[in-house]
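Researcher: Can you fold this with heme C in place?
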Amino acid sequence: MPGLLLLLSLATLLEDPLLPEPWRGKALSLARSDLRNSDSISGKESFRRDLGELLFYATGFSENPSNSCASCHDAERAFQDQRSHPRGLQGIARDTPSLWGVSGQRWWGWDGRWDSLWAQALEPIESVDEMGGDRLMLLRWIDEDDQRRDLFEKGFGPLPSLAGLPEKARSGSDWHPDYLLVSKSRRKEIDLAFSKAGRSIAAFEATLEAPRSSFDDYIDALATSDLHKAELYPAEARRGLILFLDKGRCILCHGGPLLSDGEFHDTGLLTSGSSGKDSGRYGGILELKSNPFNLEGQFSTASEMEGADRTRRLKRDPSVWGAFRTPSLRGIRHTAPYFHDGSQKDLKSVIRFYTRRDGARKKSQAAGHHGENLMEELNFTPGEEYLLERFLETL
Ligand code: HEC
Ligand code: HEC
């Protein structure tokens, strides 16, 4: 009889729309951080953001006239492209991430090869795989239009003179020979202005947030103990949430407002780990260290320089070979395909990857002394897999 009572009370706990502890506290830790209200941005920041928005959608400084940031990060598709391997001028073997909530990360790129959002924005502009433009083409594009030049100067101060400079700074993935003849001090002025253009794009990206979802309403209901409102959240999704917090241990890595710990893990994908070709975080650290636009570099502000400790402390560490940054799960139902290599076509297959290790490396192909221990199978029933999927869809 006591056993039956226990079962009954467990069942009532599971049915409580306001979630019993400890789940409730854990669920509340997933509350979204306050939306940065774009109307509250004023002064210089608003000029920067407006210029950044123009830059984000522009094709005028790209070698390929149809390529802008927005051609891969499409506002209609959660600022990604639904393709596993987006084609720029050549091909890239990584999935395009959504930009919703992107300013809340600590490192950017699947491999974290940028330590600021503004430095990230500079690479696609010049990468032959992406836009194939360059810093001079970009600054000229700003300079040749009164509105754009005005936004730049109100946001950052004077634009350097471009008179007498060559047409282009780059030729393919190399410097243009004529650009190398320009004096070092002028090139530094150009680099500084280029970094400011990156800052304006970052100011625009800071306004990109996943739209509010039924999960956000549910979290509000938990925070205010509003039973009536909590009952509006589907019971299946609520039970999926419990699996996410508890048996699935998803929250270990997918915690906080973005449902991402912002750190790097090897989840056991066939294409990652020590045998994989994509070195992930390992290569990311090397690239970050050698990037003149990293936070340790001369284009950082004084406060960024102080905060550059995290970058300074990074070491070339073989144990992070094949690790990738935990993605945010906000708006996840809009951003298929999944994983850095775009290898999972829908949420069902992602869940099976975790619960049954479908499409994952086996223990015998473990990363050995490199990398973390591979994750264990979760032994979910098909019913539990279904509930977890219902939950993820409400994000
Ligand atoms: C050809 C497609 C393409 C274009 C064009 C492109 N991107 Fe991306 N973007 C990607 C891919 C793919 C990644 C993942 C790269 C990686 O992690 O190695 C990415 C990563 C990012 C990230 C990191 C997101 C995160 O969660 O860390 C940001 C921010 C970003 N892009 C912004 C931009 C901006 C700004 C532009 C224009 C200046 C741009 N992208 C142009 C495909 C593109
Ligand atoms: C050890 C940390 C860790 C745990 C635990 C974990 N994840 Fe992940 N998750 C990651 C990382 C890292 C990635 C990206 C892997 C990659 O692309 O190489 C990821 C990717 C994902 C994606 C794809 C996101 C995208 O944009 O491509 C989903 C969905 C996801 N996880 C859901 C879950 C669920 C559900 C659970 C629990 C069953 C879970 N994760 C447990 C770290 C983790």
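Model: Folded with heme C in place. The first strand starts at residue 170 and ends at 171.
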